[in-house]
């Protein structure tokens, strides 16, 4: 089978990390991409479970609290000094 070139755009830092990983696994980027593509064709889909991250209730509550603090900053104490903040946190 003839080989063809394919260009893809990826974040530079991601590419570097991936190359380091694949090198540690004894392969180059081309081999890794070919493994992915062969597996995708074999499974007729993405060869791993793709999900979106669903935050737990604690995270949702914290996000709601931040939104509330942004809407009504007058109801919350602000700090200009880290030492003062730490004293309040320790209390």
Q: Please, could you describe this protein's structure?
A:
The structure is a single chain. The protein is built from four helices and no strands. Helices cover 57% and strands 0% of the residues. The N and C termini lie far apart (71 Å). With 91 residues, it is an all-alpha fold. The mean pLDDT is 94.
Strand content: under 5%
Counted by DSSP, the helix tally is: 4
Compute the CA-based radius of gyration: 24 Å
3D shape: elongated
Helix content: 55-70%
Uncertain parts: none
Name the descriptors.
91 residues; single chain; mainly alpha; 4 helices
Question: In short, what is this structure?
Answer:
The protein is built from 4 helices and no strands. The protein is mostly helical and 91 residues long.
Please give the structural blueprint.
Elements lengths: L11 H13 L4 H15 L13 H15 L10 H9 L1
